[in-house]
Amino acid sequence: MRKIGLVGLGKMGVLHGAIVNALPDCRISAVCEREKFIVNMAKKILLNDVSYYVSCTSMMENEALDAVFITTSIRQHLPIIVEIAKAQRDISLFVEKPLAESADSARLACETVANLRGVHMVGFQKRYSPIYRHAKKLIDEAAIGKPLFFMAHSYSSDLLREGKSWRSKKGTGGVLLDLAPHLIDLILWFFGDVKSVSAITRSLYSREVEDFANASLVFESGLTGQMNTCWSVRGFRLPEISIEIYGDKGNMLVEDDMVKLEPGESTMNQEPQVFYKQTFDTAVPFLVDQREYTEEDMTFLDCINRGSEPGTSFSEAAKVNLLIDRIKKTASGTI
Protein backbone atom coordinates (compact mmCIF):
# COMPACT_ATOMS: atom_id res chain seq x y z
CA MET A 1 0.00 0.00 0.00
CA ARG A 2 1.53 3.31 -1.10
CA LYS A 3 1.34 6.08 1.47
CA ILE A 4 0.54 9.47 -0.04
CA GLY A 5 0.88 12.90 1.52
CA LEU A 6 -1.20 15.95 0.65
CA VAL A 7 -0.15 19.60 1.09
CA GLY A 8 -3.11 21.97 0.95
CA LEU A 9 -6.77 21.16 1.49
CA GLY A 10 -8.40 23.54 -0.96
CA LYS A 11 -10.65 22.46 -3.81
CA MET A 12 -7.90 20.69 -5.73
CA GLY A 13 -6.47 19.06 -2.61
CA VAL A 14 -9.84 17.56 -1.74
CA LEU A 15 -10.28 16.40 -5.36
CA HIS A 16 -6.92 14.64 -5.58
CA GLY A 17 -7.35 13.22 -2.10
CA ALA A 18 -10.68 11.68 -3.07
CA ILE A 19 -9.21 10.16 -6.23
CA VAL A 20 -6.19 8.69 -4.43
CA ASN A 21 -8.36 7.15 -1.73
CA ALA A 22 -10.57 5.53 -4.38
CA LEU A 23 -7.63 3.92 -6.19
CA PRO A 24 -6.36 0.49 -5.13
CA ASP A 25 -3.07 0.10 -3.25
CA CYS A 26 -2.70 3.74 -2.16
CA ARG A 27 -4.14 5.99 0.53
CA ILE A 28 -3.81 9.56 1.77
CA SER A 29 -2.06 8.95 5.07
CA ALA A 30 -0.83 12.46 5.95
CA VAL A 31 -2.05 16.00 5.32
CA CYS A 32 -0.20 19.29 5.78
CA GLU A 33 -2.62 22.19 6.27
CA ARG A 34 -2.17 25.30 8.44
CA GLU A 35 -5.79 26.44 8.61
CA LYS A 36 -7.35 24.89 11.73
CA PHE A 37 -10.90 25.37 10.47
CA ILE A 38 -10.14 23.41 7.30
CA VAL A 39 -8.41 20.66 9.28
CA ASN A 40 -11.38 20.33 11.63
CA MET A 41 -13.73 20.00 8.66
CA ALA A 42 -11.44 17.46 6.98
CA LYS A 43 -11.32 15.29 10.09
CA LYS A 44 -15.07 14.87 9.82
CA ILE A 45 -15.06 13.64 6.23
CA LEU A 46 -11.66 11.95 5.65
CA LEU A 47 -10.55 8.56 6.89
CA ASN A 48 -9.77 8.33 10.60
CA ASP A 49 -6.21 7.13 10.14
CA VAL A 50 -4.98 10.35 8.47
CA SER A 51 -2.32 12.33 10.35
CA TYR A 52 -2.33 16.13 10.22
CA TYR A 53 0.64 18.51 10.26
CA VAL A 54 1.24 22.25 10.06
CA SER A 55 4.67 21.95 8.41
CA CYS A 56 5.97 19.81 5.56
CA THR A 57 9.20 19.13 7.43
CA SER A 58 7.32 17.58 10.35
CA MET A 59 5.19 15.54 7.98
CA MET A 60 8.22 14.18 6.15
CA GLU A 61 10.10 13.43 9.38
CA ASN A 62 7.24 11.46 10.89
CA GLU A 63 5.75 9.72 7.84
CA ALA A 64 7.27 7.19 5.44
CA LEU A 65 5.62 8.61 2.32
CA ASP A 66 5.96 7.41 -1.25
CA ALA A 67 4.59 10.56 -2.87
CA VAL A 68 3.19 14.01 -2.07
CA PHE A 69 0.52 16.06 -3.87
CA ILE A 70 1.09 19.83 -3.62
CA THR A 71 -2.13 21.78 -4.15
CA THR A 72 -1.40 25.10 -2.44
CA SER A 73 -1.35 28.60 -3.92
CA ILE A 74 1.14 29.06 -6.76
CA ARG A 75 3.67 31.16 -4.87
CA GLN A 76 4.01 28.43 -2.24
CA HIS A 77 4.95 25.70 -4.73
CA LEU A 78 8.71 26.30 -4.87
CA PRO A 79 9.28 26.68 -1.10
CA ILE A 80 7.32 23.48 -0.46
CA ILE A 81 9.20 21.57 -3.18
CA VAL A 82 12.51 22.67 -1.65
CA GLU A 83 11.38 21.82 1.89
CA ILE A 84 10.19 18.34 0.94
CA ALA A 85 13.29 17.62 -1.19
CA LYS A 86 15.58 18.46 1.72
CA ALA A 87 13.69 16.07 3.98
CA GLN A 88 13.53 13.08 1.61
CA ARG A 89 15.58 12.42 -1.52
CA ASP A 90 13.50 9.66 -3.10
CA ILE A 91 10.06 11.27 -2.89
CA SER A 92 7.73 11.59 -5.88
CA LEU A 93 5.93 14.93 -6.25
CA PHE A 94 2.73 15.98 -8.01
CA VAL A 95 2.22 19.76 -8.24
CA GLU A 96 -0.96 21.42 -9.43
CA LYS A 97 -0.49 23.70 -12.42
CA PRO A 98 1.42 25.87 -13.01
CA LEU A 99 4.72 24.63 -11.61
CA ALA A 100 5.70 28.02 -10.16
CA GLU A 101 4.96 31.74 -10.22
CA SER A 102 7.82 32.63 -12.57
CA ALA A 103 10.30 31.10 -15.00
CA ASP A 104 13.12 31.54 -12.46
CA SER A 105 11.14 29.74 -9.76
CA ALA A 106 10.25 26.95 -12.21
CA ARG A 107 13.94 26.58 -13.11
CA LEU A 108 14.83 26.33 -9.41
CA ALA A 109 12.11 23.71 -8.94
CA CYS A 110 13.62 21.65 -11.77
CA GLU A 111 17.11 22.02 -10.31
CA THR A 112 15.83 20.99 -6.88
CA VAL A 113 14.54 17.63 -8.11
CA ALA A 114 17.21 17.03 -10.77
CA ASN A 115 19.27 14.74 -8.55
CA LEU A 116 16.36 13.21 -6.67
CA ARG A 117 14.91 9.79 -7.21
CA GLY A 118 11.18 9.60 -7.86
CA VAL A 119 8.67 11.00 -10.35
CA HIS A 120 7.97 14.73 -10.59
CA MET A 121 4.79 15.74 -12.42
CA VAL A 122 2.60 18.83 -12.90
CA GLY A 123 -1.19 18.68 -13.19
CA PHE A 124 -1.93 19.71 -16.78
CA GLN A 125 -4.94 17.43 -16.99
CA LYS A 126 -6.04 18.66 -20.43
CA ARG A 127 -3.36 16.38 -21.92
CA TYR A 128 -5.33 13.43 -20.54
CA SER A 129 -8.52 14.39 -22.39
CA PRO A 130 -9.31 12.08 -25.34
CA ILE A 131 -10.17 15.19 -27.37
CA TYR A 132 -6.79 16.86 -27.04
CA ARG A 133 -4.97 13.54 -27.39
CA HIS A 134 -6.81 12.91 -30.66
CA ALA A 135 -6.07 16.44 -31.88
CA LYS A 136 -2.39 15.92 -31.13
CA LYS A 137 -2.47 12.62 -33.06
CA LEU A 138 -4.11 14.29 -36.08
CA ILE A 139 -1.50 17.07 -36.07
CA ASP A 140 1.37 14.57 -35.84
CA GLU A 141 -0.14 12.53 -38.69
CA ALA A 142 -0.42 15.68 -40.85
CA ALA A 143 -4.18 15.28 -41.21
CA ILE A 144 -4.35 18.97 -42.20
CA GLY A 145 -0.91 18.99 -43.78
CA LYS A 146 1.60 21.49 -42.46
CA PRO A 147 0.06 23.86 -39.88
CA LEU A 148 0.38 27.45 -41.14
CA PHE A 149 -1.25 29.52 -38.42
CA PHE A 150 -3.72 29.21 -35.55
CA MET A 151 -6.07 31.26 -33.40
CA ALA A 152 -6.72 30.19 -29.82
CA HIS A 153 -8.54 31.46 -26.76
CA SER A 154 -9.22 30.58 -23.16
CA TYR A 155 -12.14 32.49 -21.65
CA SER A 156 -14.17 32.45 -18.45
CA SER A 157 -16.59 34.70 -16.53
CA ASP A 158 -14.76 34.53 -13.20
CA LEU A 159 -14.18 38.28 -12.77
CA LEU A 160 -16.86 40.64 -14.07
CA ARG A 161 -16.67 43.58 -11.66
CA GLU A 162 -14.30 45.36 -9.36
CA GLY A 163 -14.19 43.98 -5.85
CA LYS A 164 -12.25 41.92 -3.37
CA SER A 165 -12.01 38.70 -5.38
CA TRP A 166 -8.83 36.75 -4.62
CA ARG A 167 -8.29 36.55 -8.37
CA SER A 168 -7.64 40.29 -8.59
CA LYS A 169 -4.91 40.29 -5.92
CA LYS A 170 -1.19 40.35 -6.60
CA GLY A 171 0.32 36.99 -5.73
CA THR A 172 -2.42 34.97 -7.46
CA GLY A 173 -0.63 35.66 -10.74
CA GLY A 174 -3.46 37.15 -12.76
CA VAL A 175 -5.13 35.50 -15.74
CA LEU A 176 -1.81 34.35 -17.24
CA LEU A 177 -0.98 32.16 -14.24
CA ASP A 178 -4.54 31.14 -13.39
CA LEU A 179 -6.59 30.55 -16.56
CA ALA A 180 -4.01 30.54 -19.36
CA PRO A 181 -1.57 27.72 -18.35
CA HIS A 182 -3.74 24.89 -19.73
CA LEU A 183 -4.04 26.61 -23.13
CA ILE A 184 -0.33 27.48 -23.19
CA ASP A 185 0.62 23.89 -22.34
CA LEU A 186 -1.57 22.57 -25.17
CA ILE A 187 -0.10 25.06 -27.66
CA LEU A 188 3.46 24.08 -26.75
CA TRP A 189 2.53 20.37 -26.85
CA PHE A 190 0.91 20.74 -30.26
CA PHE A 191 3.41 23.03 -31.96
CA GLY A 192 6.77 22.95 -30.16
CA ASP A 193 9.12 25.76 -29.14
CA VAL A 194 8.33 29.45 -29.56
CA LYS A 195 10.87 31.64 -31.35
CA SER A 196 9.43 35.11 -30.72
CA VAL A 197 6.60 36.76 -28.79
CA SER A 198 4.69 40.02 -29.12
CA ALA A 199 2.01 40.68 -26.51
CA ILE A 200 -0.27 43.11 -24.73
CA THR A 201 -2.00 42.76 -21.36
CA ARG A 202 -4.82 44.75 -19.79
CA SER A 203 -6.32 45.14 -16.32
CA LEU A 204 -10.09 45.42 -16.75
CA TYR A 205 -11.43 45.06 -13.22
CA SER A 206 -8.25 44.34 -11.25
CA ARG A 207 -5.73 46.90 -10.04
CA GLU A 208 -2.85 44.56 -9.24
CA VAL A 209 -2.92 41.89 -11.98
CA GLU A 210 -3.84 41.47 -15.64
CA ASP A 211 -7.35 40.32 -16.62
CA PHE A 212 -6.66 40.00 -20.36
CA ALA A 213 -3.69 39.01 -22.48
CA ASN A 214 -3.12 38.77 -26.22
CA ALA A 215 0.03 37.15 -27.61
CA SER A 216 1.29 36.82 -31.17
CA LEU A 217 3.59 33.80 -31.36
CA VAL A 218 6.12 32.70 -33.94
CA PHE A 219 7.38 29.13 -33.57
CA GLU A 220 10.71 27.60 -34.50
CA SER A 221 8.87 25.67 -37.25
CA GLY A 222 7.71 28.91 -38.86
CA LEU A 223 4.12 28.52 -37.63
CA THR A 224 2.45 31.70 -36.37
CA GLY A 225 -0.47 32.04 -34.01
CA GLN A 226 -2.66 34.35 -31.95
CA MET A 227 -3.61 33.56 -28.35
CA ASN A 228 -6.17 35.42 -26.24
CA THR A 229 -6.97 34.74 -22.61
CA CYS A 230 -9.40 36.59 -20.38
CA TRP A 231 -11.38 35.72 -17.25
CA SER A 232 -13.76 38.68 -17.68
CA VAL A 233 -15.82 37.54 -20.69
CA ARG A 234 -19.56 37.28 -20.08
CA GLY A 235 -21.34 34.08 -21.05
CA PHE A 236 -18.60 31.65 -20.09
CA ARG A 237 -19.97 30.07 -16.92
CA LEU A 238 -17.34 27.36 -17.29
CA PRO A 239 -13.83 28.04 -18.66
CA GLU A 240 -13.61 27.34 -22.39
CA ILE A 241 -10.65 26.55 -24.63
CA SER A 242 -10.80 26.80 -28.41
CA ILE A 243 -7.96 26.29 -30.91
CA GLU A 244 -8.50 26.85 -34.66
CA ILE A 245 -5.63 25.45 -36.74
CA TYR A 246 -5.22 26.22 -40.44
CA GLY A 247 -3.00 23.93 -42.52
CA ASP A 248 -2.01 23.68 -46.16
CA LYS A 249 -4.29 20.63 -46.61
CA GLY A 250 -7.20 21.43 -44.31
CA ASN A 251 -8.35 23.04 -41.09
CA MET A 252 -9.09 21.79 -37.59
CA LEU A 253 -11.14 23.17 -34.70
CA VAL A 254 -10.35 21.82 -31.25
CA GLU A 255 -12.58 22.53 -28.24
CA ASP A 256 -13.05 20.86 -24.88
CA ASP A 257 -15.76 18.50 -26.13
CA MET A 258 -15.00 17.98 -29.83
CA VAL A 259 -12.53 18.00 -32.72
CA LYS A 260 -13.74 19.10 -36.17
CA LEU A 261 -11.58 18.21 -39.17
CA GLU A 262 -12.28 20.05 -42.42
CA PRO A 263 -10.60 18.81 -45.64
CA GLY A 264 -8.76 21.19 -47.96
CA GLU A 265 -9.46 22.01 -51.62
CA SER A 266 -7.80 18.82 -52.89
CA THR A 267 -10.35 16.72 -50.97
CA MET A 268 -13.48 18.77 -51.57
CA ASN A 269 -15.64 15.67 -51.92
CA GLN A 270 -14.91 14.66 -48.34
CA GLU A 271 -17.31 15.73 -45.61
CA PRO A 272 -15.99 17.36 -42.45
CA GLN A 273 -15.30 14.86 -39.67
CA VAL A 274 -16.44 15.63 -36.13
CA PHE A 275 -15.15 13.64 -33.17
CA TYR A 276 -17.18 14.22 -30.00
CA LYS A 277 -15.83 13.53 -26.54
CA GLN A 278 -18.51 10.96 -25.76
CA THR A 279 -17.58 8.86 -28.82
CA PHE A 280 -14.16 7.97 -27.37
CA ASP A 281 -13.54 5.11 -24.99
CA THR A 282 -13.16 7.13 -21.81
CA ALA A 283 -13.65 4.36 -19.28
CA VAL A 284 -11.95 4.92 -15.94
CA PRO A 285 -12.54 2.91 -12.73
CA PHE A 286 -14.62 5.74 -11.25
CA LEU A 287 -15.45 9.41 -11.78
CA VAL A 288 -14.51 12.20 -9.38
CA ASP A 289 -15.19 15.41 -11.31
CA GLN A 290 -13.89 15.06 -14.90
CA ARG A 291 -12.32 11.78 -16.03
CA GLU A 292 -9.07 13.59 -16.89
CA TYR A 293 -8.32 14.11 -13.19
CA THR A 294 -8.60 10.38 -12.51
CA GLU A 295 -6.53 9.62 -15.61
CA GLU A 296 -3.70 11.96 -14.64
CA ASP A 297 -3.53 10.71 -11.05
CA MET A 298 -3.48 7.12 -12.29
CA THR A 299 -0.69 8.10 -14.71
CA PHE A 300 1.33 9.67 -11.89
CA LEU A 301 1.07 6.57 -9.72
CA ASP A 302 1.76 4.28 -12.68
CA CYS A 303 4.91 6.27 -13.51
CA ILE A 304 6.05 5.75 -9.90
CA ASN A 305 5.53 2.00 -10.28
CA ARG A 306 7.37 1.91 -13.61
CA GLY A 307 10.04 4.45 -12.76
CA SER A 308 9.20 6.39 -15.94
CA GLU A 309 8.92 10.12 -16.60
CA PRO A 310 5.42 11.55 -17.22
CA GLY A 311 4.64 13.70 -20.23
CA THR A 312 3.83 16.62 -17.95
CA SER A 313 7.14 16.52 -16.07
CA PHE A 314 8.66 19.47 -14.22
CA SER A 315 10.89 20.23 -17.21
CA GLU A 316 7.90 20.29 -19.58
CA ALA A 317 5.91 22.45 -17.16
CA ALA A 318 8.78 24.92 -16.85
CA LYS A 319 8.30 25.75 -20.55
CA VAL A 320 4.84 27.08 -19.70
CA ASN A 321 6.27 29.40 -17.04
CA LEU A 322 8.96 30.56 -19.47
CA LEU A 323 6.41 31.52 -22.13
CA ILE A 324 4.21 33.29 -19.56
CA ASP A 325 7.19 35.35 -18.44
CA ARG A 326 8.05 36.20 -22.05
CA ILE A 327 4.46 37.36 -22.64
CA LYS A 328 4.53 39.52 -19.51
CA LYS A 329 7.91 41.04 -20.31
CA THR A 330 7.16 41.91 -23.92
CA ALA A 331 3.77 43.34 -22.88
CA SER A 332 5.46 45.57 -20.31
CA GLY A 333 8.15 46.63 -22.74
CA THR A 334 11.00 45.08 -20.74
CA ILE A 335 12.28 43.04 -23.68
Q: SSE string, helix = H, strand = E?
A: EHEHEHEHEHEHEHHEEEEEEEHH
CATH topology of the largest domain: Dihydrodipicolinate Reductase, domain 2
Outline type = globular
Radius of gyration: 21 Å
CATH class placement of the largest domain: Alpha Beta
**DSSP strand content:** 25-35%
What is the domain total for the residues?
Answer: 2
Distance between the termini: 51 Å
Give the uncertain stretches in residue-range form: none
Q: Please tell me the CATH architecture of the largest domain by its name.
A: 2-Layer Sandwich
Strand line-up across the major sheet: 8-9-10-7-11-12-13-14
Total strand segments:
14
The CATH H-level homologous superfamily of the largest domain: Dihydrodipicolinate Reductase, domain 2
Helix percentage range: 25-40%
Give me the secondary-structure topology:
Layout: E1 2-7, H1 11-22, E2 26-32, H2 36-45, E3 51-53, H3 56-62, E4 67-70, H4 77-87, E5 92-96, H5 103-113, E6 120-123, H6 130-140, E7 147-155, H7 175-178, H8 181-191, E8 194-202, E9 212-219, E10 224-230, E11 240-247, E12 250-255, E13 258-263, E14 273-276, H9 291-306, H10 314-332
